[in-house]
Automatic annotation (TrEMBL):
Residues 180-333 form the PurM-like C-terminal domain. Residues 55-168 form the PurM-like N-terminal domain. InterPro entries: HypE (IPR011854), PurM-like_C_dom (IPR010918), PurM-like_C_sf (IPR036676), PurM-like_N (IPR016188), PurM-like_N_sf (IPR036921). It comes from Mycolicibacterium sphagni. GO terms for biological process: protein maturation. This is Hydrogenase expression/formation protein HypE. The gene is hypE. Belongs to the HypE family.
Amino acid sequence: MPEAPMTIDPANWVCPLPLRETKRIMLGHGGGGVLSEELIENLFLPAFGSTGKPGRDSALLDVPAGRIAVTTDSYVVQPLFFPGGNIGDLAVNGTINDLACSGAVPIGLTAGFIVEEGLELVVLGAVAQTMGKAAAKAGVTIVTGDTKVVGKGSADQLFINTAGVGVVPPGVEIGPERARPGDHIIVSGNIGEHGVAIMSVREGIDFGTVVTTDSAPLHRLVAAMLAACAASGAPGAVHALRDPTRGGLVASVVEIAKAASVGVELDEATIPVPETVSSACSFLGLDPLQVANEGKIVAFVDPSQSATVLAAMRARPEGVNATIIGRVVAEHSGMAVTNTPFGTTRVIDRELGEQLPRIC
């Protein structure tokens, strides 16, 4: 079974070294002076597992052979802490997963913090420590970062911007434009859990059980999928990958359908939606197929290799509930439809905005 998501209670965080006589962020912490230096040396570096190397304005990375993949993302989730995680591990895992969807092996992350004046240091420290632990667990280093402090009321506690660098191994060709008619569509597990976890805390709604975020790094799952295809003599069988975050499953399949000028046909009854998610979405008037996920992947795979890929996914803790949910068709180019349990077909498309804002 998958490991329990990582989280850290800010009430249990203790600064490794004292940060003067303040318990909250002050404007001076972002001013580049002594307070900034103390914040970096006594809070961030211990949390990120600093090697003690001299500080630079940029990190130097040893890069193996292959193409470079680069991604960036910003995290503004509210609340900062939610069942199973917080904004810190969400930022690390989300950045890793963006790289993984290109088949890249992550080699370094950056972290930029926009901190509101008055934020408690225990909160910032707990988030930073979670980031460090999540990165270490994923086998990736946070190699450089930045901190800015804005006046009270100019932000909402804490925003995090990340960038990730990875290497795409030779021979790996994955992209949304490579989906083709006949491909099987596989999702790595239950959908909708992250969005419902956020809403349960944000709205104070008790769904009768605790729904935790599915936030997890997926690069090892992707590596296992690619290795299985290579071992079976079909190294290019995984055509497209997408992590269904904002906009959920619907946004992912529609975007790929448009990019590849193909149609998508899903079998609604096969899509793994947990009962807790289904009930919560029904109560809130949401479509679970459009609720965000942070630890799932959607794969478009050559049908001759879908059984091989499915077995490789199910052998990993991140993919134990992987299942085939549909196929790519030549008809209705750029559109996605679902076959309902009632024998009808309905068109699915992205929302004009977000069902759930501030979800990541």
